């Protein structure tokens, strides 16, 4: 069984262009994301999926520079790009991540994968409710992704990859899992605005160590010493895709 993490990343952003290559402690943000995901004990490969638009030539240059596998495809039909990337790298299970989540945690990814692998009937998993924005993980079977690719037609499903899976509960088994930890969903750990960037840079400045990956609980502990962090981007509104899957309270 092969598990591939696919990181969607492109240079265009309405609120913070070129954010994915933001310099963080001397390396592009996308490099940090890849390195953090590579710490997973279950993922076999980490791949970047970017668009075939000219502006994303920079993403290809970056991937080649750091010897990171990548795929380039449709800018607007992200589902097609995502499926073709997964197909090219011959995966059985796909972990979907995005290039603006600089604090994504391999420990949380592995927790999610263990839940997914432990329940064979699941087609799609959203893990975990209650985590800060930017920490959740989506996992799906390649067979389910293939059906979504072949059958989906509305723009929401084509643009956001996974809605076809969780909107069609009669066709797919979808599950969302609530975090066992305290609810920290009020925190915003993604990078989509200048305020988000300020927070991410502040967290890395305190916690980054090139010899050790810091984790979710390390960040929460640091918040106790830096209460000002909670105010940096707390007024930013997150764009949301409505989830209608089944809920599991584990």
State mean pLDDT (0 to 100 scale).
93
Cα(first) to Cα(last) distance is 25 Å
Please report the number of helical segments.
10
Query: What is the name of the CATH class?
Result: Alpha Beta
Total domains: 1
* CATH homologous superfamily designation: Spore Coat Polysaccharide Biosynthesis Protein SpsA, Chain A
CATH architecture: Alpha-Beta Complex
Number of strands: 10
CATH topology, what is it called?
A: Spore Coat Polysaccharide Biosynthesis Protein SpsA, Chain A
Sheet/helix structural class: alpha/beta
Low-confidence spans: pLDDT under 50, at least 5 residues? 241-250
Query: Which shape, going by the Cα principal axes?
Result: globular
Helical fraction: 25-40%
Strand content range: 15-25%
The side-by-side strand order for the widest beta sheet comes to: 5-4-1-6-8-7-9-10
Structure description:
This protein is α/β, with parallel strands linked by helices and 250 residues long. The chain has one domain: Spore Coat Polysaccharide Biosynthesis Protein SpsA, Chain A (Alpha-Beta Complex), CATH 3.90.550.10. The chain contains 10 helices and 10 strands. It has helices at 29-38, 57-65, 78-88, 106-118, 142-151, 155-160, 163-167, 194-207, 216-225, 229-232; strands at residues 3-8, 23-24, 27-28, 45-51, 70-73, 93-98, 124-129, 137-141, 174-178, 246-248. It has an 8-stranded mixed β-sheet, sandwiched between helices. Strands 2-3 form a two-stranded antiparallel ribbon. A hairpin with a 7-residue loop joins β7 (124-129) and β8 (137-141). The longest helix is centred in the last third of the chain and has 14 residues, at 194-207. It is globular, with a radius of gyration of 17 Å.
